[in-house]
Amino acid sequence: MNQAQIPSWQQVRATFKQIWGYEDFRPPQGEIVESLLAKKDTIIIMPTGGGKSICFQLPALLQTGLTLVVSPLVALMENQVQELKERKLRAALLHSQLSSSQRRETLQALERQKLRLLYLSPETLLSPPVWEKLSHPELEINGLILDEAHCLVQWGDTFRPAYRRLGAVRPALLKTKRRGTKIALAAFTATADPLAQTVISETLQLQQPAVFRLNPYRNNLNPNVRIVWTPQGRTQQLLKFIQKNTQTSGLVYVRTRRDSEDLAAQLTQRGHSTASYHGGLGAEERREVEASWLSGKIPFVVCTSAFGMGINKPDVRWVIHFQAPLLLSEYVQEIGRAGRDGKPAETLTLISEPTGLLNPEDKQRQRFFEDKVREQQLTAKQLIKKLPPTGEVDIVARKFPDAAIALSLLHSMGKLKWIDPFNYSIDKNSQIKPERRSRSGNQMQQYLTTKKCRWQFLLTAFGFEKEALLRCGHCDNCR
User: What is each CA distance from 245 to 241, 273, 317, 345, 381, in whole angstroms?
Assistant: First the structure.
């Protein structure tokens, strides 16, 4: 049943042209499609706007059975499923904000094997009613795709602990299927440095994955970093930049929901047409902001990292980081939303003066983040004494409020194994793995203060030393 014949390359190209209208693939799209059709585990690192989604959508549509796409954000799922439905393709999504009738309709379509692609979050995938349907012996599953896989590294330890359980999904599903069934596992992202690739591969339990990597360099993107000396100076620099670029489309990135709302309100008071966007908004509000920005009704959005994944607007001319991201991978993701049409685009990051005496905001933010992570790790280490050595996640989480995050951190530290996605086993005698996140945070700081070519720094950091440039000629340090 799962061993259906792989379609010929002629069929693959014909379907590609029929659905998307393209004559041929851009490298390495064709090789990725082949890898997934052959049921191989795969890691794909392609810059934003490189046509990643086609690489897993096409193999899913060429096969009988279902491909599961695990995606971090409702907005991202909605955009992709909407496009597929407009092409009359059998795709659906499941998330917590659906009405009970929509949810029931999708679960029925799943049960009747009417779907080729099902988009869902890690939390929805592991919810009992969905898991029960996916575990049905007759339901054929071809592939498990982790879209925006960098979220596993950024959010998996503390913010979205369900990500840490995804490696146990394939073995658990295979136990419920016919003998000889194969489920391909693939992780897609625009940015993953060598360390992040290792975390993704280990967490998902990938088996000898094929790796496809394109370097993130874009010669039309001009990175700039500017020091600000006071909080007022930060706002003034932002206003100056926006006024200089009033006729063009852009994005202003901030770190928290509150920052997004406060800054958007401040800019609106000053007469700018903008909106706040973050993961806490309802589906309708999010769609409204997206539509206003895509149509040009509002020239820019003040947003958290929740904005931009999977939203395709080619003519974004600038991206400002009002506050620097904590990780280099986030930064590259976010600046990559500018200049997708190949025309020049500016990116500006505002940072506090290095001593932090006149403007301690950045240092306080960094310290708050580090303290929170340390506190969570301490809680996890203390909880290890109280937790049963083996147990069920939901039962333990009801008894101990911080248990889900603690279990995720213990897994990250190498102290815990998942028996299946719902049950764990603690190994108190294993060695704790060295903390990885602080290294990533230091890398971001080094980038912000480097005197070298910024693109040279980024290419080296993401493992493309051989392709690194001595001077790009268009970042602030080169200019």
Answer: 6, 13, 9, 11, 50
Residue 436's pLDDT is what?
Answer: 57
Quote the CA–CA distance of 87 and 192 in Å, as a whole number: 31
Cα 261 to its chain centre, rounded Å, is: 22
Query: Starting from the edge strand earliest in sequence, which strands make up the sheet with 117-120, in order?
Result: 91-94, 117-120, 66-70, 141-146, 184-189, 42-45, 210-213
Q: Which residues neighbour 5 within 8 Å (Cβ) at sequence distance 6 or greater?
A: none
The Cα–Cα gap between 10 and 132 comes to 37
Question: Torsion angle of alpha carbons 299, 301, 305, 308, nearest 10°?
Answer: -40
Structure tokens given for 55: 């690489």
State the DSSP code for 434. Answer: P
Q: Record the tokens describing residue 328, joined without a space.
A: 């280099």
DSSP category for residue 263:
H
Q: How far, in whole angstroms, is CA 329 from its chain's centroid?
A: 10
Distance CA 193, CA 331 (A): 12
pLDDT score recorded for residue 1: 43
For the chain of 479 residues, list the mean pLDDT of each consecutive stretch of 10. 73 94 92 96 87 94 95 84 91 90 94 96 95 96 95 84 96 96 95 91 97 93 95 95 94 95 97 93 86 94 86 92 91 93 96 80 79 81 85 92 88 92 88 62 89 95 87 95
Instruction: Indicate the helix (H) or strand (E) that contains 79.
Output: helix 74-86
User: Position 49: which residue type?
Assistant: G
Strand (E) or helix (H) holding 303? strand 300-303
The Cα-based distances of 243 to 246, 260, 310, 318 in angstroms read 5, 19, 28, 12
Residue 109 CA neighbour count, 13 Å, CB half: 17
Is the N-terminal amide bond of 194 cis, ω within 30° of 0? Answer: no
Q: Tokens representing 317?
A: 């001319």
Q: Which candidate, 28, 120, 137, 139, places its Cα nearest to that of 71?
A: 120
pLDDT of residue 438: 52
Of 283, 290, 288, 343, nearest to 98 by C-alpha is 283
**Closest by CA position to 322, among listed 340, 343, 300:** 300
Q: Taking the alpha carbons of 470, 474, 476, 479 in that order, is the dihedral positive or negative? A: positive
DSSP character string of 350-386: EEE-TT-SS-THHHHHHHHHHHHHHHHHHHHHHHHHH
The C-alpha atoms of residue 80 and residue 84 are separated, in whole angstroms, by 6
The answer to whether 200 and 192 have CB atoms below 8 angstroms apart is yes
Q: Which residue has the tokens 């690739």?
A: 197
